[in-house]
Amino acid sequence: MELDERRHRLGLGLLSLLLVCSSCAARFVVEKNSLTVTSPESIKGTHDSAIGNFGIPQYGGSMAGTVVYPKENRKGCKEFSESGISFQSKPGALPTFVLVDRGDCFFAMKVWNVQKAGASAVLVADDIEEALITMDSPEEDRASAEYIQNITIPSALIEKSFAEKLKQAISGGDMVNVNLDWREAVPHPDDRVEYELWTSSNDECGVKCDMLMEFLKDFKGAAQILEKGGYTQFTPHYITWYCPQAFILSKQCKSQCINHGRYCAPDPEQDFSSGYEGKNVVIENLRQLCVFKVANESSKPWVWWDYVTDFQIRCPMKDKKYNKECADTVIKSLGLDMRKIDKCMGDPDANVENAVLKEEQDAQVGKGTRGDVTILPTLVVNNRQYRGKLAKGAVLKAICSGFEETTEPSVCLSGDVETNECLDNNGGCWQDKTANITACKDTFRGRVCECPLVDGVQFKGDGYSHCEVSGLGRCKINNGGCWHESRNGHAFSACSDTDDGKCKCPPGFKGDGVKTCEDVDECKEKKACQCPECSCKNTWGSYDCSCSGDLLYIRDHDTCISKSASEVKSAWTAFWVILIGLGMAAGGAYLIYKYRIRSYMDSEIRAIMAQYMPLDSQTEVPNHVHSEERA
């Protein structure tokens, strides 16, 4: 039986024929990316391709590769190892993109077999002329889930006519090089991303529910960082169905719906006679919507992530805790207003519309570039449906690609979204293997070559072939790229923070300062120790000069003098210093003495004049000379 997945998937997979989607005319939008042929010249051009709904598309980036069309197993439904075929690219070569034909097995199986053979991407050639469709994963089962969750390479469906051109070029011996581009797959108009997740509180629906619950736990941290920083606006949504009017009173509708058949969900265990019912899921979905609404009103919309992850852990269906009592415990622990949440939920038994769920049904209908939401889970980023594996790194990359370039928050440059292109030949960027410094930097948009900042020291250059340190502190990083050497306990360097980034050999050396600095032989080149009595001996980085006999070498004057003459000169110098000092002390003492005597004489003269020529208003001035006679 041929399984080619040609039909569009228009529903979640109804577990009861009585449940009907609220949007009568479904509109499914195929998300596309650009595929450009760069060689050969005869088929150059750009074409659309449909992004596969599994694997990890490189949102925000692009990938170049060489297309290969296998001679055997052209539909990719068998493992290529059985034929000894490998698509692993050789070092230095472009990645390998394998072209396979549609038909005979699931799309995901083809991609998985090609991935195991070492390819980097898969192009699936349509076998009929039709509009492109989305390659979706098969219906839930454990066998397919094991390989689907391990698919990490991107895939795309291409039109039959375009595929024939590729095949003809390959069969003619041409090297076919193409470029897959996801940079415009998600619009990026500004510095904030709006995204929404269509989900469900049901944790017993099989593989997809397990995957969804795991994603919620893994992505919670990144989502809250983005939301708290104001970088994103997140909105959770929940799909509901309605029961046809003719069956509202049936047992099936009563067990799966609330508000008299207006809002329904499939039975979790697909067994109407036991376990939880569909209406239990609808009520919890409604509660989670109201948790978000109340948290958003208090300017803390990220609390929704805390509630859904805590509820999943504390109130699972398998432990029979999927109920209001357990939910209220979680709500209370998060400090949310329970009365507001209960008021928001309303009465599920009333024969009236529920404003919150009615709004959800209206939102399911596609608007603008977004198609109808009919599959769970569904992620929409900037009004474009996400295609690919629901994993933290892949989703974060898609969200980050929605920011206008250069406005991405720091979380978008974390290891979770690195492309790891720097691992292959250092990404073609500059590097200093000695100092273990590289200009290659992985980002979610691909690698960039930018001269790095290391320990506060900035490297400058083009990042591809040249980066050099500059500014203060540059000599700390690999000696500023300059020559340096140590010998006999002495270290010499051609690096200086004050030489405008240039390497200059230190005194006593000559060379370019980068690779070499050779010792200058001052003695041989007669640059020192040239006095007749001098004897010169060259040392590494310097020289030693000595004088014959009892002569003493004076380096500053490059001359030799007698040691005795030097001693006599020193003695006379000391004598004159002492003599001058004594003279200065005597002069100072004389000045002080003269000042004191003059002051005393002035006082005596005033006293005598006051005795013989007294004034009416002048009091008697003491006479120091005749004080005893007056007494």
Automatic annotation (TrEMBL):
PANTHER family: PROTEASE-ASSOCIATED DOMAIN-CONTAINING PROTEIN, PROTEASE-ASSOCIATED DOMAIN-CONTAINING PROTEIN 1. Pfam families: cEGF, PA, VSR_TRX. Belongs to the VSR (BP-80) family. The keyword Nucleotide-binding does not apply. CDD domains: EGF_CA (cd00054), PA_VSR (cd02125). Residues 503-517 form the EGF-like domain. It is a single-pass type I membrane protein. The keyword Calcium applies. It is found in: Cytoplasmic vesicle, Clathrin-coated vesicle membrane; Golgi apparatus membrane; Prevacuolar compartment membrane. InterPro entries: cEGF (IPR026823), EGF (IPR000742), EGF-like_Ca-bd_dom (IPR001881), EGF_Ca-bd_CS (IPR018097), PA_dom_sf (IPR046450), PA_domain (IPR003137), VSR_TRX (IPR056858). Residues 1-26 form the signal peptide. Its main location: membrane. One of its GO terms (biological process) is protein targeting to vacuole. Keywords: Calcium, Cytoplasmic vesicle, Disulfide bond, EGF-like domain, Glycoprotein, Golgi apparatus, Membrane, Protein transport, Repeat, Signal, Transmembrane, Transmembrane helix, Transport. GO terms for molecular function: calcium ion binding. The chain crosses the membrane at residues 571-593. GO terms for cellular component: clathrin-coated vesicle membrane; Golgi membrane. This is EGF-like domain-containing protein.
